[in-house]
């Protein structure tokens, strides 16, 4: 019995040929196809390229929000007043203090990203201060679970190389 492969061919392609995906030419007019009926839209190809580059270069900490879009995966946040985000940040600096015998206090969130899966995975860049010293910038990955518990994966001082 012969398997019909015609459904797997691209236009102009012969059986046995493989399509070279690098031959695809993107047209910005395709972006019109990304708008949903509720007014939100999918990210454009250019936004996806920038998104993945930012994730790679910053370990997911410095991903720009893309307003008006609704996508799964790591999302740059604009509102840093969320109770779950603030509680997660305070748990992160508490974790750092215990591990390093310090007494930093949370000051403010600078950037944050979130991925939703059985709760919120946050990648947070924030400032904290120890006494009268100048605030320092930290990075943390935390999980705010659906049972409202918080797990801190790590909390570290942000390296000057990643500034």
TrEMBL record:
Example GO molecular function: cysteine-type endopeptidase inhibitor activity
Q: InterPro entries, alphabetically?
A: Cystatin_dom, Cystatin_sf, MS5
Q: What is this protein's name?
A: Uncharacterized protein LOC109705072
Q: Tell me which family the UniProt entry assigns to this protein.
A: Belongs to the cystatin family. Phytocystatin subfamily.
Specify the Cystatin domain's residue ranges.
81-143
Provide this UniProt record's keywords sorted from A to Z: Protease inhibitor, Thiol protease inhibitor
The signal peptide here is none
Is Acyltransferase a UniProt keyword of this protein?
no
Q: Please, which domain of life does this record's source organism belong to?
A: Eukaryota
Presence of keyword Plastid = no
Q: What's the source species for this entry?
A: Ananas comosus
């Amino acid at each position: 019995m012969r398997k019909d492969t015609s459904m797997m061919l691209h236009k102009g392609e012969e059986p046995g040929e493989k399509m070279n995906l690098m031959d695809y030419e993107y047209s910005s007019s395709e972006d019109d196809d990304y708008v949903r009926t509720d007014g939100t839209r999918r990210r454009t190809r250019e936004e996806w390229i920038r998104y993945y580059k930012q994730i790679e270069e910053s370990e997911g900490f410095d991903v720009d929000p893309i307003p008006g879009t609704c996508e799964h995966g790591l999302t740059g946040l604009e509102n840093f007043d969320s109770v779950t985000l603030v509680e997660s940040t305070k748990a992160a600096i508490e974790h750092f203090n215990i591990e390093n015998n310090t007494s930093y206090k949370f000051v403010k969130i600078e950037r944050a990203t979130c991925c939703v899966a059985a709760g919120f995975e946050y990648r947070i860049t924030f400032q904290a201060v120890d006494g009268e010293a100048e605030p320092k910038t930290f990075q943390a990955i935390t999980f705010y679970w659906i049972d409202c518990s918080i797990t801190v994966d790590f909390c570290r001082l942000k390296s000057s190389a990643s500034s």
